[in-house]
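Q: How would the structure tokens look for this protein?
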Amino acid sequence: MDAVGRVYAFYESFAGEKRVIGRSVCGQPLVALHVGGQGKQLLFQYAIHAREWVTALLALAHIKEGVPRGGAWFIPLANPDGAALSLRGEKFLRTLPPQRAELLRRVNGGRDYSLWKANAAAVDLNVNFGAAWGTGTANVRAPAPENYIGPAPFSEPESRALRGFTLSVRPAATVSYHTKGREIYWEFGQRGQALRRDEALARALAERTGYRARVITGSAGGYKDWCIRALGIPAFTIEAGSDALRHPLGEHSLPSLLEENGGVPALLCELLAQET
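A: Here is the predicted structure in token form.
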């Protein structure tokens, strides 16, 4: 069973609070699972980029770990269509309407879909959020395996589902798991106390993971960016795994990802619970 199947099997067997928060372009459910209790809530999302599907398996490990204080929502597979395409290729395409399948074949330009990042509309979901949308230096403006911003902010059902669920939960912080590079991105124009708060949290996460907390330029329209801009909360992108590894990181990389990122939800819950 591949990572997509394992996420859905885990969801079906999960005894705690869970929800379907929306549907993908191809109608697959976007699922969220909750651990912990009352108090400040966190939100973690994984695999918004198709080829980074290994982070969905990291999500399942994080859910099993739980959190010591407050609560956390986990969205293990924010881009199920893209992950299925990256993992299954033509086998997945044969399940789609012919027009949809032909679009993806034409955009990809070959039969190897393992490096695909976008959703099933060839939109890169992590540049489809309404935070300086369309201003990233790598953005493209036509369907592509990566970096296409879409026809408008929140044009995609997956990004709209993430927006709606985040607004309903009102988390104290969010974390987006990606691969790779062993870096943590945390800044998107914060100032004053918010800047100091978020930098301190990023440094704590960096100490736990061994990753480098970085300020980057030229990136916009991501989920992290929108959470910072729209909600004013700490939001982090964690690029898990060594940059020496090649995309897509396979399951063989999971033990090292777990070693570096185990306990991250628990740590962030503890840190935020200490804030007044």
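The chain has a mean pLDDT of 97.

The beta strands are 18-23, 29-36, 41-46, 71-75, 173-178, 183-185, 212-214, 235-239.

Upvote if useful.
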